[in-house]
Amino acid sequence: MNKYRNPADVVVYNSLSRKKEKFVSIHPMHIGMYVCGPTVYGDPHLGHARAYITFDLVFRYFRHLGYQVRYVRNITDVGHLENDADEGEDKIAQKARLEQIEPMEVVQHYTVGFHKNMDQLNVLRPSIEPHASGHLIEQIEMVKKILSAGYAYESDGSVYFDVEKYNQNHPYGILSGRKIEELISNTRALTGQGQKRNSFDFAIWKKAEPSHIMRWPSPWGDGFPGWHMECSAMGCKYLGEQFDIHGGGMDLLFPHHESEIAQSTIANNKSPVRYWMHNNMITLNGQKMGKSLGNAMSLNDVFAGNHPLLAQAYSPMTIRFFMLQAHYRSTLDFSNEALQAAEKGLKKLLVASLTLQKLKPSQGAVDQGVDTIAKACYDAMNDDFSSPVVIASLFEAVKLVNAANDGHLHLNAGELEQLQQLFNAFLFDILGMQAEDAGSDQQLVDGLMQTIIGLRQEARARKDFATSDVIRDSLSKLNIVLKDGKEGTSWEVK
RNA sequence: GGUCUCGUGGCCGAGUGGCUAGGCAGCGGUCUGCAAAACCGUGUACAGCGGUUCGAAUCCGCUCGAGACCUCCA
Questions:
Q1: According to the model, what pLDDT value does residue A88 have?
Q2: Taking the CB of residue A14, how many other CB atoms lie within 10 A of it?
Q3: Largest CB tally within 10 Å, which of A10, A263, A303, A494?
Q4: Bridge partner residues of A298 (DSSP)
Q5: Nucleotide nearest residue A392, measured CA to C1'
């Protein structure tokens, strides 16, 4: 199977070129990847799950291929401008006032919650998780660099990036496909626009009004960094002036990532990122799910089945599997039917992986095509991380496993070994699935179950089906299902 | 309004110019004391209309519909 594991075969869709490109890292077998992290002012929702599962998949696959990946994902905790009735009040500061606690307490609370949800989803922690609030110095230094390069101007305690000047010799809009002329006619009037030379200029340092709690001293007075600064500053600090991959949700493409490119290009004299990757949105009834749209489902609600639109609770692994069944660049519509289908499909896969462990090789068995499945899995992942196709291939493997278990088909030792590797590598290591409910009482429960099954077996041998059915029915009420097979009875939790 | 994306069978969701995606649900069967699971079999899908082509769900055009970004957002 390993003959298909080739780090040079990966093709990545680059938002910058809008094409799939062969992936070549700047430094051989090393990858620098930056992903925009959450703003920690609320509970993580399904949209966050999609983004971080997407890049977890990328992270895991590159590691599987043998790359050493430094994965940086920030925590945004300096807050950024709110634009409606809040008159520019900082998001985090606003929440803090609401709950009468310190801003950093809010940050801490939601950061902990974020980590918990990500752990539940089996999303690996990044290599470095820098906080924006811990990198004020780096951000201020970067603002200074841009100012001295002449691509920014100070105005009433704030510093703005001069987009028009930048556009004279660099393509502003290279990522989002926007043209500066269109921006002129389309930008909406916002508060504080009067201080800017052009409406499309963006703040790289923002003056803090007296009421603003989150503030830091700077050469331009007390304030806080512009929204796009943290990613540029921290990406550069930990990954260098130019690195391989920058990821995030499609909604960040403009203006956030576009502005990052502009800032970094001026500060460091080179384009910061080789491959830009963007995951698509989760939709609810066809509409984007978003915090500000008020239709976001928090992960805690989903895991608890605690939302009017949820027919039941869905486990973290069901959510993860559901998301990986769609390609990361497609929108994914939420529905109970789709979630339930994912739940069943995942279970089928996990049960098969257990069945596989019990299979014995058959003598003289012929080739059943396991190798073809392994190749298909690598081909799919190499083709811009096509997890849905990997999953489809794994179901092919499930078919072989179950058929072999039923004695309809014979697998030789080599193929069994290869199937085992396939499940370990793709289902568990790369897709990041894990068996759920493996509690510490597992051994005790197993023992109890063997006893009960033994008693029922005796009853059945006596043809005392009344007793055997009572046992099965009472267990069923505890969500335990018995399955009578040729090799005896097995059980599982529904 | 501008830019862009998408429209696949009951539901979700892949896809290459000609060869069965896959999952869930349904139907028929095998197995089972009855079930469950598993296995076998089963579906005239590609928004509409034109065009290119020997051949298009896949390329081009138009129409209709949906969505994203242009403002904080994963």
A1: 52
A2: 20
A3: A263
A4: A45
A5: B22
